[in-house]
């Protein structure tokens, strides 16, 4: 009932404000807040596993990662293969650190740095598009057989993973279906599509959660990174899990 009511309210609001006004920007932000939940944002605590498969023209590799998140904070720990097992990425607000076994101190890194294949460090964390980007509702279009709002997102600061995102959001389901990522100069870095076959439940509500993110290189269609999400659960995450001073423990 909650989802149907929200969808109907947003649809009515879109009809009233579509056209580039301040209300339009507010509506776009409301859409982003909803889509963030389906990608790990806006919940009191959530955990999931990722299996990342990286393919290129002549090679293939994989990574397994366990992720936990609370609000704007995320902790990712690599669990396989053995060559990366125990490595961790911690995102607190807009600051990120890396640590690996044997490394005495966490190393500050950027969410923009490449993690594996086409995925950046920021891609495995919970999203906070509503907080990190200024959004404008530009037009509507169809993708994957669904009518979508198209949002134009521009970064509020330089510490986020991407300067500019064009984001397709399903009008009926209010989930992100596609994102094109750009540099500040307008160069397209990559595209991503999203699937939502997982479900999460919290406080009597049930809604979809991302199950797959497929990233492609616009200049090389043979280069892909597929991240499958599993074992998703809403859970209370201890605050110390996001303490950079305890990251080596």
Descriptive overview:
This protein is mainly beta. It has a single domain (2-246), classed as outer membrane lipoprotein receptor (LolB), chain A (Clam). Helices cover 14% and strands 49% of the residues. The chain has three helices and 17 strands. It has helices spanning 2-17, 22-37, 129-132; strands at residues 46-55, 60-70, 73-80, 88-92, 95-99, 107-109, 114-116, 119-120, 133-143, 146-155, 164-170, 176-182, 188-195, 198-202, 205-209, 212-217, 220-234. The strands form three sheets. A 13-stranded antiparallel sheet has the order 6-5-4-3-2-1-17-16-13-12-11-10-9. The longest helix has 16 residues, at 2-17. Mean pLDDT is 86; it is low at 1-20.
